């Protein structure tokens, strides 16, 4: 196995797997809900914990790779990813599945953090450009293929197959890596900022838990208050630790640069606004409209498909446009697309109502995503380029995790209000009915209704789910529009390229989509 491109195959295969596992679960959620009798909150955690672990551990994984070896950490990440995928596929209940997804996210962080450093150490010159082009293309393909592949495996095999399919693929990636990929390390003297890593992880986890718990039990709930207070304290600790660390995870002086700070906010808000609401759209397509997993997967592909085409075709055309303008314009299009979805989706809608808004959002994603990291690199000093790249990807994944938590809280509350206000369900049963509808068990609500009330129960399901989906689409749209205006206002100048002789510290660059 002496071919120049075998290392690229090993690295892009791992990258493809870790990214596809963000979206492949979407179309399987109704089947997961039925198979494990999972609640709406459990479904949120199945989606959220993976992105949360990935975000929390990405920067520390990059430091560990520099210290212990990037090839070694990549192989460890593949092994952890495979083992946790096996546990996901065999999970007897929702709790085990959620725990295994957290471990899977940790493995994904190790893989993601070592992708681009390994490519940079393996290739140079024109070959490096080709390698990064292929790597970026597979990132976009993962977003487009994920929902469809998840639908095919769920419909024709079983929902557990969406995790078990990772086992042969990781085995292939490990075999090729062992035979063809060389070891590389960072600069001598690298160290891991453990206090910063722990405090950041506690902050992200506590914040996400507090948001979900507050939405489920009320904002006066003791556990929610403790979690949110703990998140605030952990953030303070992280700030103090990073200011005094010799080799911090994140140099907080970067955030004093208005352009850099706004770009980090844009990374978080873009990911929070563009993708999380698709989780609830997928539930709507299957549990309310009765579509098959394959058809539901195909119904949401306009976003990823358009994003992939625009990202691939528009790179050279937009090369002379300031990245801030492209990013800001892309965010405005993402917001417009979400608002279109909020306008078109109602109780009588079918899947075609989503297509125009998804295509418009896909256009914005195709414009915004490819320039996000380059804009962040331009807003940071050249010697901090690697840290800037790792930070922007961390904020992106954190945005997805927080988006799932916030939008899920709003969605479930809106469905509950709609069910209660309808008067079609006795007050004592309205909470259970709302939880069943939002959690993918809409058919159970209809089946439990008396024969002469079946039509009314079906109408209630359609109406309550539609108003919940409408609300989160509007919130996503306003969020993206605000982020776009902020970027256009603050990030005005075209950033200077890094010095030609100075290589940035390698760290993850961005996938085209979630």
Task: Describe the protein's topology.
Layout: H1 6-23, H2 29-36, H3 40-68, H4 70-90, H5 94-122, H6 125-156, H7 161-164, H8 166-180, H9 194-217, H10 222-244, H11 258-274, H12 277-288, H13 293-299, H14 301-313, H15 323-344, H16 355-378, H17 385-422, H18 427-438, H19 442-448, H20 454-490
Q: From the 3D coordinates, which CATH architecture of the domain at 1-182 would you assign?
A: Up-down Bundle
Instruction: Provide the CATH top-level class of the domain at 1-182.
Output: Mainly Alpha
Which range best describes the helical content: under 10%, 10-25%, 25-40%, 40-55%, 55-70% or over 70%? over 70%
The quaternary state of the protein chains shown equals single chain
Q: Spans of 5+ residues with little confidence (pLDDT < 50)?
A: 495-514
Order of helices and strands: HHHHHHHHHHHHHHHHHHHH
Describe the largest sheet.
Answer: none
Give me the count of strands. 0
Euclidean distance between termini CA atoms: 33 Å
Which topology of the domain at 1-182 does CATH recognise? Growth Hormone, Chain: A
Q: What is the count of DSSP helices, taking H or I runs of 4+ residues?
A: 20
Report the β-strand fraction as a percent range: under 5%
Q: Whole-number radius of gyration?
A: 22 Å
User: Average pLDDT value?
Assistant: 87
SSE-based structural type: mainly alpha
What does the overall shape look like? Answer: globular
CATH H-level homologous superfamily name of the domain at 1-182: MFS general substrate transporter like domains
Transmembrane segments: 43-61, 73-92, 98-120, 132-153, 159-178, 190-211, 223-241, 262-284, 296-315, 327-345, 357-377, 398-415, 469-491
Biased composition (Pro residues): 497-514
Main location: membrane
GO cellular component, one term: plasma membrane
């Amino acid at each position: 196995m002496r071919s120049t491109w075998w290392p690229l195959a090993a690295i892009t295969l791992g990258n493809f797997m870790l990214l596809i596992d963000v979206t492949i679960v979407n179309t399987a959620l109704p089947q997961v809900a039925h198979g494990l009798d999972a609640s709406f909150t459990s479904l949120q955690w199945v989606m959220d914990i993976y992105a949360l672990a990935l975000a929390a551990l990405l920067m520390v994984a990059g430091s560990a790779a520099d210290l212990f070896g990037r090839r070694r950490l990549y192989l460890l990440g593949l092994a952890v990813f495979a083992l946790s995928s096996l546990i996901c596929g065999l999970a007897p209940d929702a709790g085990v599945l959620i725990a295994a997804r957290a471990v899977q996210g940790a493995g994904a962080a190790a893989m993601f953090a070592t992708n681009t450093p390994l490519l940079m150490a393996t290739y140079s010159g024109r070959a490096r450009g080709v390698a990064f082009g292929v790597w970026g293309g597979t990132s976009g393909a993962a977003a487009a293929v994920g929902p469809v592949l998840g639908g095919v495996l769920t419909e024709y095999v079983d929902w557990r197959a969406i995790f078990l399919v990772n086992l042969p693929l990781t085995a292939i990636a490990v075999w090729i890596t062992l035979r063809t990929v060389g070891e590389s390390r960072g600069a001598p003297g690298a160290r891991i900022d453990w206090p910063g890593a722990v405090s950041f992880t506690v902050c992200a986890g506590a914040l996400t838990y507090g948001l979900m718990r507050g939405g489920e039990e009320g904002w006066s709930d003791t556990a929610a208050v403790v979690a949110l207070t703990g998140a605030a304290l952990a953030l303070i600790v992280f700030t103090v630790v990073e200011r005094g660390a010799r080799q911090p995870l994140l140099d907080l002086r970067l955030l004093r640069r208005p352009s850099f700070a706004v770009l980090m906010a844009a990374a978080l808000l873009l990911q929070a606004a563009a993708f999380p609401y698709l989780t609830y759209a997928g539930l709507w397509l299957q549990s309310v409209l009765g579509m098959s997993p394959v058809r539901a997967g195909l119904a949401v592909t306009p976003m990823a498909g358009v994003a992939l085409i625009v990202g691939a075709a528009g790179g050279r055309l937009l090369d002379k446009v300031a990245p801030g303008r492209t990013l800001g314009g892309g965010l405005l299009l993402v917001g417009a697309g979400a608002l279109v979805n909020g306008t078109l989706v109602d109780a009588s809608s079918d899947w075609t109502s989503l297509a125009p808004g998804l295509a418009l959002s896909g256009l914005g994603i195709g414009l915004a995503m490819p320039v996000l990291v380059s804009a962040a690199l331009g807003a940071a000093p050249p010697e901090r380029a690697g840290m800037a790249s790792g930070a922007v990807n961390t904020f992106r994944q954190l945005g997805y995790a927080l988006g799932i938590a916030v939008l899920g809280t709003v969605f479930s509350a809106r469905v509950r209000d709609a069910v209660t206000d309808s008067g079609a369900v006795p007050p004592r049963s309205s909470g259970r009915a709302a939880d069943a509808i939002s959690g993918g068990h809409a058919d159970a609500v209809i089946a439990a209704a008396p024969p002469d009330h079946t039509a009314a129960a079906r109408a209630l399901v359609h109406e309550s789910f539609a108003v919940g989906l409408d609300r989160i689409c509007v919130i996503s749209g306003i969020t993206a529009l605000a982020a776009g205006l902020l970027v256009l206002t603050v990030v005005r100048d075209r950033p200077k390229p890094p010095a030609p002789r100075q290589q940035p510290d390698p760290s993850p660059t961005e996938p085209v989509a979630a």
